[in-house]
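User: For a benchmark we're assembling, each entry needs the component sequences followed by a predicted structure for the full assembly. Here are entry 17's components. Please fill in the structure.
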Amino acid sequence: MKKNRERSPRVSLLAKNKIREALWGYLFISPNFLIVLIFTILPVFFSSYMSMTDWNILSKPNFIGLENYQHILQDEVARETFFNTFYFSVLSVPVSLILSLLFAVFLNQKIKGIAFFRTAYYIPCISASVAVSLMFMWLLANNGLINQMLTSFGLGPVKWLTDPKIALNSVIGITIWKGLGVNIVIFLAALQDIPPELVEAASIDGANRVQQFFKVTLPLLSPVIFFVTITGVINSFQSFDLVYNMTKGGPGHATTLIGYYIWKQAFDYLHMGYGAALANLVFFAIFILTIIQWILRKRWVYSEE
Amino acid sequence: MSSVDRSQRSNSTLKTLNRVFVYTILIVSSLMMLIPFAWSVITSLKSNENVFTHSAFWLQFPPDFSAYKEIWNRIPLLKYTANTLKVAVIVTFGQLFTSSLAGFAFAKMKFPGRDKLFVIYLATMMVPGVVLLIPNFVIMRTIGAIDTHWALILSAVGSVYGTFLMRQFFLSFPSELEDAAKLDGCNPFMFYWHVLLPNAKPILTTQGLMAFQFIWNDFQWPLIVLNSESKRTLQLGLSYLMSEYYTDWTLLMAASVLTLLPIIILFFIAQKNFIQSFKLSGLKG
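Assistant: Structure for entry 17:
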C-alpha cells in the first residue's frame, strides 16, 4: 500500500515528461514537415487529379478521366520526345559512367597534381546551366573555337546545334561534360573504401592490373555503378535547362526531351492537365526504377559510409 | 639472373608507359573541362568587332574590358544579384534551421509515430522535381505568390534531404551530453541551440553550401513563377540577355563569367565542403 502511494506521483511525473518530450518533438518537426507536406506530399496527389482534367488556367477545369493519358498515345511529338529521352539516357548514362570510373581509377593512384585535376573536373558541376549553355553555344557556333579548329584541319564547319542529326548528340555531350565531376567523386569515395588487402591478395595470386580491376574492384563497385546509372536515368528524365537555353527543343523536335516537353505543354501552351499527365508518367517510370534499386541494394548489402 | 633482370626492366618500362598514359589522359581531359571557361574569359576581353574579324586563336592584347562595362547599361545586374542573394540567403538559413530541428527530433527525441513519419520522409525523396512543377505553380497561384520571391522561398525552406542528412549526423551525437543538459534544466530547444548547433558546424556548412548553390544556379522554377523584370534572378536575367543580344558574344561571355564567378570563388574557399556535398549526393537514392 505504502509503496503504491509512493510510486504513483513518480509514474505520473514520468508520463508527464514523456508527453512533454513528444510535444517538443512534434514542435521541432512541424516547420519542416509543413513545407514538405504542402509542397511535396500533397502535390503528388494533386498532380494525379490535375492529370484527369482539361485545365488551361484561363477556364475552369473539367474532369475528363483518362483522356489525357489516351491522348499521349496518339501524340506524335510525345512519341518523338520519349524516343529522344530514351536515346539521351542510353547514350549519356553509360558514357558518363565509363569516363567517370576511368578518371576515378586514375585519380586513385598516387599522382602528382591531383588537386589540379580534381578541381578541373568539379568546376563544371558547380557552374550554372545557363552560363554553361551560353559558353557552349559560342564554342559550337559556326565561327566558334571548335569549328575554326576543324576548318583549319580542312573539315567543314559542323552545325553542332542546328543540324537535326547532330543537335541531340551535342546536348548529350555537354550534359556528360557538366555532370562528370559528381560521378567521379562518388566513384573515388567508393574506390577508397575498398580494403587494399583484397587487391593485394589478388595480386599475390598472380592477377595482373587488368584482372585485379575486373575481378576484384569492379564487382565491389557494382552497387555504386548501379546507383550512378539509376540517378543518371532519373536526371535525363528531368533535363531542361540546357535544351531550353541552347535549342528550345529544336531543330524541329530533335532535342525535345520529356522534361522540356512537359514544361512546353504546361507553361507555354497552358495545357496544365496534359502536362500533369506527362509528368505522372515520368513519375511512374522513376518510381519503378527506384523500387528496383531498393530491392537490389538490399541484396548487395552496401554500407553507406 | 639475366631473365629476372630483363623482366624487372620490362616491368619498369611498363610502369613508365602506364604513367605516361595516365597523365596524358588526365591532362587532356582536364583541359577539356577548363577550355570552355578559358575561352569565355578570353572572348569577354576582346573588342566586339575583333571577335568576327580575327580568327579564334588570335588573342587581344591589351585586353578590352568594355563588355564588362557595357553589361551594366543593358541589364540591371546589381538588382538581379541582390534578388538572387536575398532568396539564396533566406532559403539557406531557413532550410538549415527547419531541417536541423527536424533532424534532431527524428534522431534523438521519442514521440508516437516518429518512425512512420520518417519512412514517409524517405519515400518523398523519390518524388522527382518535374512532377512538382505544375501542382506547385497552382499552389503558388492560389496563395498569390506568383511573381514574388515568396514563390522561390516557400517551397525551398523545408528539405527532406536536408533533414535526412541532419538526422544521420545527430544519430552519432553522444546521448550523455543530452542527459547532462537535461539535468541542468535545459529544455530541448536550449539544448539544440546552445549545444547541438555549435557542434554541427561541418554538416551545416556542407548543407548550407548545397542549398545556396542550388538556389543561385536554379533556372526552371524561377522561369515558371517570375514574370516582371525587376524580380528576375541572375540566371533568368542571363537567359533573357541571351535572347535579346544573341550573337553579341563578348557581352554574353562577360555576363556568363560574372554570374559564374561568385560560386567558383565560393568553391575555392570551401572546396572540401563542396566535395563532401557531392559525396553526400551519393546517399540520396
